[in-house]
């Protein structure tokens, strides 16, 4: 059940990022919610599987930058999720540049933390 909650929280955070960040677009018209759900599923699966490995591998750089490199890892995971969503499912999640992805990863992190604090027991 916790994965479903994580998926829902990620979907809310991705929707907020699409709405707030100017360089992030979801091409799909009326099927935008389906695209957000698919993208959130892929991002949740990446956060569970690939992200911990990347965090361990980038630990020395993260320590040297006092944790700021963690934002770059989040941005790279966002790019990976967009690439997989577009390649596998044709979702149409478009990121215009690195700084848009960086801002979107910050928005997703903040919204996820807020919604998780409301949902947690």
Mean pLDDT: 90
Structural class: mainly alpha
Tell me the span between the first and last alpha carbons. 13 Å
> Rg from C-alpha positions?
14 Å
Name the helicity range.
over 70%
Overall outline: globular
Major β-sheet annotation? 2 strands, antiparallel
Number of helical stretches of at least 4 residues = 6
Element order: H for helix, E for strand: HEHHHHEH
Oligomeric state:
single chain
Q: Which stretches of 5+ consecutive residues score pLDDT under 50? A: none
Strand order of the largest sheet: 1-2
How many β-strands, per DSSP?
A: 2
Proportion of beta-strand residues:
under 5%
Written overview of the protein:
The chain has helices spanning 2-20, 32-49, 51-57, 59-64, 69-89, 98-119; strands at residues 24-26, 93-95. By secondary structure, it is mainly alpha-helical. The protein has a two-stranded antiparallel ribbon. The two termini are 13 Å apart.
Write a brief structural summary:
Helix content is 77%, strand content 5%.
Task: Give the key terms.
two-stranded antiparallel ribbon; mainly alpha; 121 residues
What's the helix and strand layout?
Elements: H1 2-20, E1 24-26, H2 32-49, H3 51-57, H4 59-64, H5 69-89, E2 93-95, H6 98-119
Antiparallel strand pairs: 1-2
Helix pairs in contact: 1-2, 1-6, 2-5, 5-6
